Amino acid sequence: MRAEDGTLRPARYMSRTEREQGQMMSDFYGILPAMSVDSNVRGIDAVLVSLVEKLGVTAAEFAPEVLADAWRKAAGDFLSCRAELLTIANGKARIRTAHPAVRYELTQRKAQLIKVLNAVLGEGCVKGVQIVHG
User: Fold this and answer.
1) 10 Å Cβ neighbour count for 87?
2) Cα(34)–Cα(18) distance, integer angstroms
3) What own/partner pairs with CB < 8 Å and gap ≥ 24 does 126-129 have?
4) pLDDT tens across 56-75, in order?
5) How far are the Cα atoms of 14, 20, 87, 103 from residue 27, in angstroms, in the given order?
6) d(CA 115, CA 70)
7) What is the pLDDT of residue 111?
8) Res 113 pLDDT > 90
9) Is the pLDDT score of 54 beyond 50?
10) CA distances in angstroms from 107 to 3, 40, 64, 87, 122, listed in the order given
11) What CA–CA distance (Å, rounded) separates 33 from 102?
12) Is a pLDDT exceeding 80 seen at residue 46?
C-alpha cells in the first residue's frame, strides 16, 4: 500500500469482531481503538529525514559531529582545543573561546577560517565569523 509521501507501508486489515471491539472501547471509554503493531510502520530514520527536509535544515546546521570535524580541519589541533564552533546559522559561524590570545588569533584568521569551513561544509555555507568570549 502506498502512503501519501510515496513510501510503501503494510496494509492494516481488521476483522469485523476487531472493528466492533474497537468501536465499543471508543464509545464506552472515549478512547481510540488500539493500532496494530505493524500498521503504517515508518522507521525513525524516515521520520527524521522528512522532518529535516520540511524544516530546511542542512547537515552543517543539524549535526554537531559535522561541525566538530569541520572546525578541527579549519582551526587546526591547537586552536580547536581552545575554541569551540557553536553553530552555523544564517551564514554566520559562532565561535566561543575564553582565551584572549586565541580570540586575537581567530580574529586574524577569519578569512582563512571562512575559506576552509566552506571547503568542508559546502560553498556559501559560511559568510562571516562571530567570536564570542566566554
Assistant:
1) 15
2) 10
3) 126/88, 126/91, 126/92, 126/93, 127/91, 127/92, 128/91, 128/92, 128/93, 129/92, 129/93, 129/95
4) 665 545 578 888 888 999 99
5) 18, 10, 50, 66
6) 11
7) 94
8) yes
9) yes
10) 52, 52, 23, 17, 22
11) 61
12) no
**Which one-letter amino acid corresponds to residue 129?**
V
Cell of 56: 530546511
- Using the predicted structure, report yes or no on whether residue 36 has a pLDDT greater than 50: no
As a whole number of angstroms, the distance between CA 67 and CA 113 comes to: 13
Q: What is the pLDDT of residue 57?
A: 61
- Could you tell me the three cell numbers for 63? 549535526
Straight-line distance from the first to the last Cα atom of the chain, in angstroms, rounded to the nearest whole number: 54
Whole-number pLDDT of residue 37: 46
The cell numbers describing 60, all together, are 552543517
The long-range contacts involving 39-43, CB below 8 angstroms and separated by at least 24 positions, are 39/10, 39/12, 40/3, 40/9, 40/10, 40/12, 41/9, 41/10, 42/7, 42/9
pTM of the entire predicted model: 0.54
Which domains are seen in the chain, by residue range? 16-55 (no CATH), 59-133 (3.30.300)
